[in-house]
Amino acid sequence: MTRCRSAISKAESPNSAVPSDATLTAWAKACRVPVEEFLEIVNRAKSGTPEWFGPYLSAEREATSLRFWGPLVVPGLLQTEAYIRAHERSDDVVRKRLERQEALGRARVTAAIDHRVLAHAIGSPAVMAEQCSHLANLVEAEKIRLYVVPEGANIGLTGAFAVATKNGASTLSLTTSTRDITSTAPDMVDDNLNLFEQILGIALGPVPSLEYVRNQEERWKEPRL
Known about the structure:
Elements: H1 2-12, H2 21-31, H3 35-46, H4 54-62, E1 65-70, H5 81-87, H6 91-100, E2 108-114, H7 125-140, E3 144-149, E4 159-166, E5 169-176, E6 180-183, H8 186-202, H9 206-221
Parallel strand pairs: 1-2, 2-3
Antiparallel strand pairs: 1-4, 4-5, 5-6
Helix pairs in contact: 7-9
């Protein structure tokens, strides 16, 4: 029994290789599940991607429009590798987030962040300076539209969200302090799209937002005592 439990624990670990075809076939037979379906389930489980996030990732890969709101950190698709590594331990998470950034050259991306996102350190000052530079470069290359919510405009602080849209159909990814969900429910999507419009309505315009990011870049480059 101990040996069996050890084998199962090893197989379930995302750090281990996918079990052999023979092992998967035997497990599928024991579970009375088609081996192709079983393999898909195993690979999905071992990917390290939370089950709730899978539908959003699928929508993001096909989306023609992406909208992001980040009240605490830079939205994932706009993060540098160093910024990701400053708060993620898994190399797999880092790799997959960087791979997702191919969307920046394909979809129309509109992002809004709270001013505090670039004012507090994630990692070192050098990491933050590079992250600010990266955001500004994306704007100047016209790969994203970026809006910064200024000090005193407290809105949307309950959680981050992303909306992936194609042909009028939208998928919402919502992250709060109490729950993480993906939804296509029209009322939830509409509520967050309406909130996004409110956020853009009080945010700095594109030019002042870019200036803010460049100013933050210079601030992070200043020598520290």
